[in-house]
Amino acid sequence: MCWVTIRAPDGLASGVVPGTVQSIERAAAILRVVAGSGGRLGVTDIAAAVGLAKTTAHSLLRTLLSVGFVEQDPATGRYALGPGLLRLGTPLDVNELRARSSNWADALAARSGHAVRLATLAGADVVVVHHVFRPDDSAQVLEVGTTLPARSTALGKVLLAYAPAPPAELAEVRTQGWAAERGEQEPSTGSIAAPVRAAGGLVTAALGVSGPLTSLFDGRGVPRSLLLAMVVDAAHAVSRELGHVSA
Amino acid sequence: MPDRYVLAVDQGTTSTRSLVFDRGGRMVAVRQREHHQYFPRPGWVEHDPMEIWANTQRTAAQVLGDVPDAGDVVALGIANQRETTVVWDRVTGRPVTRALVWQDTRTADLVTELAARPDAGLVAERSGMAIAGYFSGPRLRWILDHVPRARERAERGELLFGTMETWLIWNLTGGPDGGVHVTDVTNASRTLLMDVRSCRWDPDLLAFFDIPAEMLPEIRPSVGILGRATALNRALPIAGALGDQQAALFGQACFAPGEAKCTYGTGSFLLQNTGTELVRTRSGSISTVAYQLAGEAPRYALEGSVAVAGALVQWLRDGLGLIGSAAEVETLARTVADNGGCYVVPAFSGLLAPHWRGEARGLVAGLTSYVTKGHLARAVLEATGWQTRDVVQAMAADSGLSLPALRVDGGMTTNNLLMQFVADALDTPVVRPMVGETVSLGAAYAAGLAVGVWSDVEALRRNWHRSAQWTPTPERAQALTAEYRCWERAVELSIAWGAP
């Protein structure tokens, strides 16, 4: 194995520690170079600065571009730090989340015939960020901003399952990629939800449908397959909209 | 029986989109391509008609490839950016100049000159609209005056005029090789050249603007067969065409007098159906044709156009850098409980409906050291709500029709704070439909109705479903009536500020 020594732009040589992940170290070195360059360097200069082959530097830069950590000037091809870096540590703005998910949430409601909600986690509760009415023109009240107990909703189960230290009983939610709730909020209604991931893969929200138990589940309590596929697909579509590239 | 689909082309200001809708009015596929914006001089805005035609062909072919069986697509409908003007050679099919876009202000001097003529009252009397550079007739006149030999060639019948739907239909139906030269009545009503009652080109208006009749397209109903699109990978009947805002009215299923929609984009466009009655306006709204079904009388609408709505939020983002994205304006606005006494009048280049004061300039009123960026964000959102109230009040004064509810669409409708504010400011419920693509849906509805995909407008009405509703709160509505007076004063000040 050939270890490269990476030169940081401030002139400090950072030797490579065995046992660390090489590509992350390389990416970090590239980010330092890009940050120090003020957006004036193209791939050739960046590769030279970190002592990497141009093709290697290029593929690292493409990856950093895809997660939003760098951005590229389309005219000159030069790289600068991306908005994704600046947003690290600040959760995605909920109003931004609503604007970006709106078309997919509408389509899910129109196709499934059920009410749709998008929610984020707030402690032991979920907060409804977006709500699309059940498309039957009956009287319904917009629930944006209201909170629901996380443990007894499909939205909450998804968000808890992907949170740090998830409860053991929700392990299967991560395995199957969705959660269901049957009559835990109200006796004859239930819900199905799937995770929404932001760029980088972090689960930031859950998207789901709710409605009568009989139309959501079959006689054995299994989610109806067509409906489940719609929910999972819509959650994927919103994730793509947020910049998540699925594996 | 297999499902039947309708193709819609939405030829907009920044892009051309092709979409396919099913019988439930649900979008099943979409393709989009942007075109270049040319700004050759300050105030001039141009598009390349050949590029737009190429984008139309390309996106339509792509979207027809996206649906499992293109054989199930049975008709094509077109919605287009309004008032954008194209003149081309009927033999070569080449435009004589780039299209003059609806935002282009080069006809200002020409319009001032024409409006000063003693017989200028004829324009409003016949066309239903006051003479203004906003409409396509003066743009056509500008081309005839400024493009070398254009006038003599037009008089010899060598040149054709059209708005975007006319240009696309002519090309779709064969172009120089037998292309059909038609316009729909809603687009024709935006030229200032059409008699708004008879829906025919008016000889006196043509004389007033000095336009040769030879170059004008035939005026047709919005809903009905216009020609056969042979230039696509699959030949389809072109069965509907509408200007984009009229298409949105149609897509929102506003078929009864009083029903109204408002599209919140860069600007905002509110149209209210007034039925078969043409309302003579005195309060600053425009009378326009809403749509016409083949064999029926035209339906009319009142229209209120506001130049700056979402553009003000963009200014907060790009001009002031207070927010990172347009949606974050709501987050910033919710950091405070009210506007802190602050009002923003976004008269960036004058005020359109209902004021029509080109000289007005924007202002921020009520600044004190108490006002934070949160208050400013609230004032920015409220400006769009207040302007909606301005327009709705003017329309109510003109038509006497009450507004049962306002149907909304466009990007700003995901902003809950704004939508609730509009409901409170109007003291009227605000409802958002399940399908946000109302412009293209309206074009699809028009075409599908003509070929029998839907039996009548009632079938279309049944497709309309509410995705959200904002209900006015009585106390808030009452409080806002008092605040509205402050907004009106701010508007008066913005007009006074810009006065020469």
Give an account of the 3D structure.
The complex is a heterodimer of chains A (247) and B (500). Chain A is an alpha+beta fold and 247 residues long. Chain A starts with 5 loop residues before the first strand and ends in a 6-residue tail after the last helix. Chain A has helices at 22-37, 43-50, 54-66, 83-86, 94-112, 154-161, 171-176, 213-216, 225-241; strands spanning 6-7, 13-14, 70-72, 79-81, 115-122, 125-132, 147-149, 179-182, 189-197, 203-212. Chain A folds into two domains: 6-86, Arc Repressor Mutant, subunit A (Orthogonal Bundle); 94-241, GAF domain (Beta-Lactamase). Helix content of chain B is 36%, strand content 23%. Chain B has helices at 49-66, 108-115, 121-127, 136-146, 150-155, 164-172, 185-188, 203-209, 244-251, 310-319, 328-333, 373-399, 416-426, 438-451, 457-463, 474-498, and strands spanning 5-11, 15-21, 27-34, 46-47, 73-80, 85-89, 99-100, 159-163, 182-184, 194-195, 200-201, 218-220, 223-229, 236-243, 260-264, 268-275, 286-291, 299-306, 343-345, 363-365, 406-409, 430-433, 466-470. In chain B, the strands form seven sheets. A seven-stranded mixed sheet of chain B has the order 17-18-16-15-21-22-23. In chain B, strands 3-2-1-5-14-13 form a six-stranded mixed sheet, sandwiched between helices. In chain B, a hairpin with a 3-residue loop joins strand 1 and strand 2 (15-21). In chain B, helix 9 packs across helix 14 (438-451). Chain B starts with a strand and ends with a helix. The A-B interface holds A 83, 93-96, 98-100, 102-103, 106-107, 109-111, 130-133, 135-137, 140, 142, 144-145 and B 24, 26-27, 324-331, 411, 414-416, 434-436, 465-470.
Question: Layout of SSEs?
Answer:
The complex is a heterodimer of chains A (247) and B (500).
Chain A: E1 6-7, E2 13-14, H1 22-37, H2 43-50, H3 54-66, E3 70-72, E4 79-81, H4 83-86, H5 94-112, E5 115-122, E6 125-132, E7 147-149, H6 154-161, H7 171-176, E8 179-182, E9 189-197, E10 203-212, H8 213-216, H9 225-241
Antiparallel strand pairs in A: 1-2, 3-4, 5-6, 5-10, 6-7, 8-9, 9-10
Chain B: E1 5-11, E2 15-21, E3 27-34, E4 46-47, H1 49-66, E5 73-80, E6 85-89, E7 99-100, H2 108-115, H3 121-127, H4 136-146, H5 150-155, E8 159-163, H6 164-172, E9 182-184, H7 185-188, E10 194-195, E11 200-201, H8 203-209, E12 218-220, E13 223-229, E14 236-243, H9 244-251, E15 260-264, E16 268-275, E17 286-291, E18 299-306, H10 310-319, H11 328-333, E19 343-345, E20 363-365, H12 373-399, E21 406-409, H13 416-426, E22 430-433, H14 438-451, H15 457-463, E23 466-470, H16 474-498
Parallel strand pairs in B: 1-5, 5-14, 9-12, 15-21, 21-22
Antiparallel strand pairs in B: 1-2, 2-3, 4-7, 6-8, 10-11, 13-14, 15-16, 16-18, 17-18, 19-20, 22-23
Helix pairs in contact in B: 1-6, 9-14, 10-12, 12-13, 13-16
